[in-house]
Amino acid sequence: MAAIFDMDGLLLDTEPLWGVSMLKIARHYQVPGGPNFFKHTTGLRIYEVTEYWAEKFPWPGTASPRQLADEILDDIIALAKKEGAIMPGAIACLEWMRRKNIKIGLATSSPTRMMQELIDHFGLNTYFDVLTSADTALSGKPHPEVYLQCAHALIEMPWNCVAFEDSVNGMVSAKAARMKVVAVPEPARLSDPKFGLADLVIPSLEDFTEEHWQVITETS
User: Fold this and answer.
1) Three-state DSSP state, 150
2) Whose CA is closest to 157, among 187, 184, 134, 178?
3) Burial (Cβ within 10 Å: 0-12, 13-18, ≥19) of residue 116
4) Could you tell me how many helices (H) and strands (E) the chain has, helices first?
5) Averaged pLDDT of the chain
6) Between the CA of residue 30 and those of 5, 26, 33, 79, 197, what are the distances in Å?
7) Sequence spans of domains, the chain
């Protein structure tokens, strides 16, 4: 068996920072987004986001979508190092899995550079056997490719993997890969019926127990 974790919003409290960095760069380059600016790109990878902006909200000047994406990435990495934190229960959960000799992977929609810098900055390297970013996949979440890549690298069949996710897109991605899913939504979405697809919904990684693991893996 293997456990595969999402990063932003699940292991690291960095999810809200994406909006801060994106809005900062968008305003700097005068991207003409309206009040529903961000809802159009929910779930897209950052390089897809700025390509969408270029098509739907073209800005003045000659800056390319790639340039905007790279600047957003630079900004959020710096912001995450300054203001981000490891989510409650994450270390205890990872350490328990290490003690049980469970393989551990990471499958994130964040770019490889951000993934590597933050996992290193927060001292999480030693917990993971495999780090996988969706920027090496043709399609990001909710497509299952990043989870399938991670399972393959862990040398595990997908149905023998348990994914830990905080988002609906991530949950759908793991389920489409035929994995079991533990959903850990933000408090405001804890009762969201969309998370009914998960095998377990808990308010925090602090609430995950050995009994939960046993029940989930016994039915794999």
Assistant:
1) helix
2) 178
3) middle
4) 8, 6
5) 95
6) 36, 6, 9, 21, 40
7) 2-14+85-218, 15-83
Q: Does domain 15-83 have CATH number 3.40.1620.10?
A: no
User: Which architecture characterizes domain 2-14+85-218 according to CATH?
Assistant: 3-Layer(aba) Sandwich (3.40)
| Residue keyed to tokens 């909200």 | 57
pTM for the model: 0.94
For position 220, what pLDDT does the model report? 54
The catalytic residue positions are 6, 8
Classified as helix, coil or strand, 165 is strand
Q: How many CA atoms lie within 13 A of 67 on its CB side?
A: 8
pLDDT in tens, 163-205: 999 999 999 999 999 999 999 999 999 999 999 999 999 999 9
